[in-house]
Input
Amino acid sequence: MIVDAGSLALWIALLVASYAVLSSLLGAWRRVPELVLSARYGFYTVPFLLLVAAAALVRAFVGHDFSVRYVAENSNLAMPSNYTWVAFYAGNAGSLLFIALVFSGMAVLAVTSISRRLPHVAPYSTAIMAAVVAFFLGIMVFLANPLERLPVPVADGQGINPLLVHFGMFIHPPMQMTGLVSVAIPFSIGVGTLLAGRGGNDDWVDLGRLWGMVSWLILTLGLLLGSWWAYTILGWGGYWAWDPVENSALMPWLATTAFVHSIMVQKRRGMFRMWNIILVAVAFTLAQMGMFINRGGPVPSVHSFAESTMGWLFLLFMTFTLLGSLAAFAWRIDTLKSRSRIESWLSRESAFLAQNALFLAVAFITLWGTVYPVIASVSSDVAITVGEPFFNRVNGPLLLVIIFLMAVGPLLPWRRANGRVVVSALKFPLGGAAVAVAVLAATGVRDPVPVTALAVCAMAVTGIVHEWVRGTISRHRGGENYVVAYGRLLTANRPRYGGYVVHLAIAMLAIGAVGSSFYAAQRDFALEPGESASLGRYSFQYIDFDKTTYTDRDEITARFDVSAGGSRIGTMEARRTFYHDFRIGATRAAIRSTPVEDFYIVPSEFADDGSAVFRAYVNPLVWWMWMSGPLFVLGAALAISPRRPARFRARRFAGAGTNRARMTDGGPNVGASLGPASAVEIPEC
Amino acid sequence: MTLSFATVLGMLVFGIGCDADASVPELDRRAQELNKSIMCPVCPGESIDQSQHPLAVQMRAIVGDRLQEGWTAGQINDYFVERYGPSVLLEPPTEGSNLLVWIVPPVGVGLGGLLLYVGIRGMRRRDDAYDSAEPPLSEDERARYFAQIRKFQDDEPVAVSPEESRSRTEADR
Output
């Protein structure tokens, strides 16, 4: 009964969303406010309709209603009940419903703020977002209905892919899907502005940046959680393999990262108007590409969980987005002239532009490497593989330059810098890099590539810490105690200092990546129970194992007694599970994680007499990668948190004068030497 | 500041200083490196180092044995390519038609850099011209400018949404 109500809700939602697209566009074109308003209010109902459909599906899962095809295909009676929630988005049809539900909810939030702050743009943005929702609804209603009934109900379902039965699955896939589709929001704001002919106004910048940061953060966390999941359950000691699906999530992340940086240039200087809209269009196109590759794309991948034959529809949608954006550009190109220009090679603007170019370059290379096997097989009929070694070799150096820019760029002043200013700004970071090189060399780490990478990370960290310390001290001199001074420093210029927190998180990620890719050790050991082995300063004894048989799986758990540097750490457990029905094995590694290094044991094979093959890893500095997660959230939240209402600020500036405001904001006071033009600028980012 | 910085650096150094890799036999290390560049033919996207599939285990054993017998990495790669085709290598060889996959990225990046260089230079040049050569507006030009503004104000577009018309009436008040 409720299933039928859900099906009906999907139909109504499709009609309403389609109406919202047409009526919003028609209203904007014929200038009929009533049509625009009715489109918007109609769109507001869509998430509620989808909620009905989702509730119906969840109810069917929980009640084991195997007359629903999707439920029968993705769950069974033996499944732990909390994983029925995972089953909701584990397959193709259900994940579409999940995406549509979450996206329509976010889109409604976005539409309310857009129509308040950008009334001219709202009709177009609403139409674009409603079109995205209608696309997903159309696929569901006509091709992959999650609530479709089977002609004859079955007694028990097929169950869920066991690799998905993991804590990380509660978060990683929904995070990733939400991240990909949410790029549509900054896209609809940017392209909506373009369509409304208001590309020359910079009033879309704040909202575009806000939603850009939101989807950036979701994408970041999705990638990080996915890596963590791979590290703990796939049992190969790594976290990133440049797999096609990983790449397809990375590409929109790269473009969105470029966007949230370059939008600051438009905010501050009225430049890059066209460029920013191009960037959101590229980001959304790449996000659609990601959904396409994930859903039965042409490239084989370990990720093809929600595989289906409808990849081509996503490709079509992507082509439509691309052509539509191009047409919008052609139509409105005259509205996009910049207010100002780049004046110097040595300026924040140039650094931002270089950053953008590098991020797009990495995205482009990743795209190239991901699709090249398809090109090769079509054009010359040879099957080749482009894998991890290729990407490491080609993208590695570019990523290094990006971190270098991350260290230098924020210290450069806007507009232009002279040599003296640059030298004084880079004194400390370069000192930090030099100290890092010296200390590393003294401890015997001398390989040029990792040392350079770590030195650049040290440079970035020193630059940030130095800015914080200097700003805090200058506020302390003004009479605040250090804690208050530091807190007020961070909140005085949120985009800037939130950005610094995120940069610290990136440095942590980079340190972890360098440590684990250049200094990891691994070795296979064949052991009988009772035997010991050692790797580096760790030694471990294989104590014994248990074998437990469940209805759907066999679990073998091995126990180890582990010691490091001669002192005992304790007992660790590693597990290997085999699911008969799926003929799939899964592992759970034994991991002991410290800031210094991870000790990681994973079982490969067990013989009946208990002898087994284990692989042990020592992965330096990986801990830092997972710890960067909270910093990303913190930094992004700070960067987009709203400031005090404008009237308070206006009063403060009127009273204090810009120079004092600049000093208390603690930004790089290199600006002071820039002459009269910079003195009128409010010091923000 | 020195303190916090020293902590970060200390972690770094300590982490890398204890070099566990040195305890792994040379031959094992070379085998691992090779394993990471050979794809497991039946598990899409995974190297034989990653995969636990029986075929991958078997291939790992072959790599180990061949290295022991003194084969070079190239010979071992050729051995697998002969059996499973060129797609068994995760890193496409730098020869023949596959050269394209290697050439396009540096050429693309180079072209992009050039475009950026020309773009910024162009902007700066026009800017110089703007700064120095532009004469102040004449009386005539000023009059035309203000006439245009007045004209623009007159045919201001009609509101397309209720919020907008509301905000406009507020502004008028």
